[in-house]
Design a protein that fits this description.
Family: Belongs to the PGI/PMI family.
Pfam families: bact-PGI_C, SIS
Order of helices and strands: HHEHEEHEHEHHHEHEHEHEHH
Radius of gyration: 20 Å
GO molecular function, one term: mannose-6-phosphate isomerase activity
Number of domains: 2
CATH topology of the largest domain: Rossmann fold
Helix content: 40-55%
Strand content: 5-15%
Structural class: alpha/beta
Shape: globular
GO biological process, one term: carbohydrate metabolic process
Keywords: Isomerase
Length: 353
């Protein structure tokens, strides 16, 4: 007789299935956005602003740190009710809201339209989809068939690929098909390595999750993986219900190291995870062992995670899947409801009154 899954086990399965679907999300969005019509005058702009909140902003953060050394025009993320003062008819505002109901993003979209900016939307529906249709605005209104959990934070394959495809389609960056194929291949390999059924002694994500029980993870990253570190922190917050911190090198070397003395209790609570990539610039790489030395000299626990793939886009997803599975396993250790976000929902209800 097959034992039925408990309601909590079903929720874990939904999240695990969404993680396993990252490659499918990525390919779906890349192909579908590349088939869309975007007017030629969208190429005649001076800057790009991506507006989004929460899970919808995570992909933007990842893209921001990933493509800064390749993008031909300024790119900025805005997580506010409004758009920057400089936005005008020579700006492209990408409005990203998974649900299409995010009030900050909707408000920013209206403001961008009032300024005469070019607008492109990324959403599954809701009010944002209505605004796009009513104003004849191009956008990617997608069916999230590869996100069984239907949680915005688990849809990064969609948001990253969609924004990359738009920027590539408009000629602001050149992302090669070979990079896309390599990223998908690395994602599938990484998912196999960190599968929840893989034994703990062969599963780095499970090993790390046990190190974080009762601890506060402090994630350190640089350059193209800075946005990925923020996305991992989000997964720890929402999936594991765990407080977490993120710092980037070199900025952290100018202040954080002096903040490791007090209170003394931090030695019992903090666990530093250094995300060290061989693709970081030479001077940044030199900082990692020195920073690690300083943190350890202050009596704090440290671990180093290094992605194996050799392209930046591939490293982004390899690292993000690792972090997603660490958060997933930690949630199981804590036996929390991994899909529900009761305090965020409570806050939203209060804001409606």
């Amino acid at each position: 007789m097959i034992k039925e899954k408990s309601p909590l086990e079903e929720k874990y399965k939904l999240i695990a299935d969404s993680i396993r679907a990252y490659p499918l999300q990525f390919k779906q969005a890349w192909i579908e956005v590349n088939s869309l019509y975007i007017p030629d005058d969208y190429k005649e702009i001076d800057n790009v602003i991506l507006c989004g909140m929460g899970g919808s902003a995570l992909g933007a953060r990842i893209i921001d740190s990933l493509i800064q050394d390749r993008l031909r025009i300024p790119f900025e993320i805005y997580t506010e009710y409004y758009v920057p003062n400089y936005v005008n008819e020579k700006s492209l505002v990408i409005a990203s809201s998974y649900s299409g109901t995010t009030e900050e993003t909707i408000n920013a979209t209206y403001e961008a339209l009032n300024r005469g900016a070019k607008v492109f939307g990324i959403t599954t529906g809701g009010k944002l989809a209505e605004v796009l249709k009513e104003n004849n605005i191009p956008g990617y209104i997608f069916n999230p068939i590869n996100n069984p959990s239907n949680q915005p934070r688990m849809s990064l394959g969609y948001s990253i690929a969609a924004a990359l495809a738009v920027l590539t389609k408009l000629g602001f960056i050149n992302v090669l098909e070979e990079e896309i194929d390599n990223a998908v291949s690395v994602m599938n390999e990484t998912l196999t390595s960190y599968h929840e059924n893989t034994r703990q002694d062969n599963n780095l994500a499970k090993i790390y999750s046990t190190k974080l029980i009762g601890k506060i993870p402090v994630i350190i990253a640089s350059e193209h993986l800075t946005g990925t570190a923020h996305a991992i922190k989000n997964q720890l917050n929402e999936n594991s219900k765990t407080f977490s911190l993120v710092f980037d090198i070199p900025e952290a070397n100018h202040h954080l190291m002096e903040g490791l003395i007090n209170p003394k209790k931090i030695r019992e609570l903090l666990v530093f995870i250094f995300i060290k990539s061989s693709l970081y610039s030479k001077r940044v790489l030199k900082r990692y062992p020195i920073t690690l030395d300083v943190v350890e000299k202050n009596g704090l626990e440290c671990h180093v995670y290094s992605p194996y793939s050799q392209q930046k886009l591939s490293q982004v997803f390899e690292t993000f899947i690792f972090g997603s599975m660490v958060a997933f396993n930690l949630a199981k250790e804590y036996k929390v409801n991994i899909t529900e976000i009761p305090w965020v929902d409570y806050f939203k209800e209060k804001m409606k009154k």
